[in-house]
Design goal:
Shape: globular
Strand order of the largest sheet: 1-2-3-6-7-8-9-10
Distance between the termini: 45 Å
Number of strands: 10
CATH topology: TIM Barrel
Number of helices: 12
Helix content: 40-55%
Oligomer: single chain
CATH architecture: Alpha-Beta Barrel
Largest sheet: 8 strands, parallel, barrel
């Protein structure tokens, strides 16, 4: 592996081989998402517990302190909105010069396998990999499904993840599925991080799927709404951190969450 890519990945993936990324890129297609209207305020107390911050260039410039030491995963795809006809109709929105200028540790791009825009988004991925590999910048592919939630099953996720890895992604972000998730991770030759998806009903539900996903081969998470839309975001972040970096069980994470929440 090229030194530059290896160095950047080592900043994102810790010595234990695990990672906890914090995504706040939702506004690029959702606008001012609930609890993310003022990103700088939302993440101020969460940043110390994040191994990487997934963010667009606009919010990075406007809301993230330049002296922050949290590595940046720069969202570089978009071009559609929640009120448009199809979220899958994305393009690359950020140049390689901008990626370098903003000192990104990695970049993230969505691919929509099985959609009308499958070829377009996969081509976006290959073009981005070609550009970023020249400068030692790893690409994280996001196996997105848009509004087609029924696609969050092992067969589809395994297909999407493997294709993304085959096309050059160094990390793949995908959804957790309760059945056969080990087939998703087992069929992907690059590290997988778990996406959060819609906000869960209870904290314990989050702890359970994160723990199970790690046991079945994921190296970490990229959870946003289940953290910063929680009434107690810092305890939630710290409880997840315990699962990821201290191998805490869901029950232990729940106890830590309740203890920390009671002190607020």
């Amino acid at each position: 592996m090229d030194w530059g890519i290896e160095n950047r990945l080592s900043r994102l993936i810790k010595k234990d081989g695990r990672c906890q990324f914090l995504p706040i890129d939702h506004g690029y297609f959702q606008g001012p998402t609930s609890c993310l209207e003022k990103p700088s305020e939302t993440i101020r107390e969460l940043l110390p517990y994040a191994d990487g911050l997934f963010v667009t260039r606009g919010v990075l410039r406007s809301s993230i302190p330049p002296n922050s030491q949290v590595p940046i995963i720069l969202r570089v795809s978009g071009g559609t909105s929640i009120i448009g006809t199809d979220l899958a109709n994305e393009t690359i929105t950020t140049s390689i010069e901008e990626i370098i200028r903003l000192n990104a540790a990695a970049v993230g791009i969505s691919v929509f396998v099985g959609s009308d825009y499958e070829k377009q988004t996969l081509t976006n991925l290959t073009q981005l990999v070609d550009q970023c590999e020249d400068f030692g910048i790893p690409v994280m592919a996001v196996t997105a499904v848009g509004k087609e939630l029924e696609k969050r099953e092992a067969r589809y996720l395994a297909l999407s993840c493997r294709i993304a890895a085959e096309l050059g992604a160094r990390i793949v972000k995908t959804y957790y599925c309760p059945e056969d998730f080990e087939k998703v991770t087992g069929g992907c030759p690059v590290p997988i991080v778990i996406a959060g998806g819609p906000k869960c009903e209870t904290e314990f539900e989050v702890f359970e799927f994160v723990y199970d996903g790690l046991q079945k081969g994921a190296i970490g998470i990229n959870l946003g709404r289940n953290v910063w839309q929680n009434p107690h975001p810092v305890p939630m972040m710290r409880a997840l951190n315990a699962i990821i970096h201290r191998n805490s069980t869901p029950r232990e994470a729940q106890e830590l969450f309740e203890e920390l929440s009671s002190k607020q």
